[in-house]
Each structure stands twice: as C-alpha cells, then as structure tokens.
Write a structure and sequence with these properties.
238 residues, alpha+beta, BirA Bifunctional Protein, domain 2, 7-stranded mixed beta sheet, 3-stranded antiparallel beta sheet, 10 strands, disordered N terminus
Length: 238
Amino acid sequence: MTAVPTAHLPAHSTAAHVLAWAERRKLATWFSPETASTNSVAKSETIHAPKLYLTERQTAGRGRGDHTWTTPMNALLSTWSFPLTYAPQPILSPLIGLSLFDACKRACPDVAFNLKAPNDLFIGDKKVAGLLIETVMIGSSVTCAIGLGLNAGEAPNGVETATGLTPHEMNWPAFLDAWFDGVTTSLQLARRSELPDEARERIKIALNLHPLLKERVLNVGPLGQIQTPTKLIHWHEL
C-alpha cells in the first residue's frame, strides 16, 4: 500500500516508474513525497513479506558511518526490506553490490558502470549510486533493510565527484526486475559464510573496472577479502 496519494507524481518521474513496477509485482509499498530516511522508516516496522519504502526527497539521507546522501532531483531514494529467519552473513555486502552492478548493466548496457568497495556504484570516476545495508534483530525476528540511492536524473548540485544517469535512458522494468531478483538471490546465498566462486570472479571484474584504483584486484577471497599486489583488504573493514 502507499502512505499518501500519488496523483501529484509526473507520469515519467522515477517514483512513478518504481511505483508502477511495484504494483505489477504486487510488492507491498510505503511511499511519501518527503521523509527523513527511508531506512529509518523501514527499521521502525515489523514486516512479514518484502516491502519497498520509497520517497522523492530525503532530509536526512544516510550512508555508511557518518556519511550523508545528497538528494538530487528525480533520484531513486529507496529501501528494500526483507523479513528473514536467519542473520545474513557478511558476504551479503559484496553480493548486494554485485546485484546493483548487474542490474544497471542490464538496464543500460552501454554505460561504463563499475564498483568501488564497499558500497558504491560509479560511472567512470564519478559516483552514481550508494548502498546502506542494515540488519535489525528483535528476538527471533530479523529484518534486512537495503537502502539504495541512485542518481537516475542529473547529478546533485555542487558535488563534483558524483554523476547522474542523464542523458542515458533507464529501462526501469529491466533494472527493477534484475535488482529485486538479484537481492533475493543474494539474501539466500548469505545463509552461507563464503562467496560462491563465480560471484567472487564477477566482483573482481567489476572492481577492476574502477578507473581510480591504485592497484589492480588480483583476487576476491571467499569472505570478500580484496587481494592486491601489496595488501589484503577485508571488505567488512572498509
């Protein structure tokens, strides 16, 4: 269901595309034109089925640690919340990053997407999306809230290190299907403690596409460790 009427939305806005897709997928949805943080709203609720939290503007958007997320116009500002019967293992973070990379490549195959560990998607050397993964455990209830901010339109004003998808045209159904299905699969895989070999190889490829790397990634280990020629970087420490 939606929290407020959505009649004000322009037909081709990001929120309109996402809400139409969610309705077709019969995905429970919370929507508000403005909120402090979709992750905060998601974490305040107990759910029994996957649910999407969506807004057009965040007044206190968050990244990892003390990072904030600047809201540009027509961005995808969302949290994808899943009830679980287990606590996901740390391999979930690189798997979700790979799911975002794969979904964007499917929707915009000609765009030079790449991953920057632990939670950023870039086009070339500029950030276009970020992830914030939070797990809430209350008794035997476990909820995984996956925040996704994607600059689907223009880059945020005054942020030289960021970019947006404009002038590229997003195939929203292809992106959202691939993203949702990829997240669902990632959550299932995160019952395990180690990454599948095929996922490790694809994560390595996506990381090595990043043009600002100081050293190439030689290997991604079973726990998400990043091996370069001179050091071993643990994903969960980034």
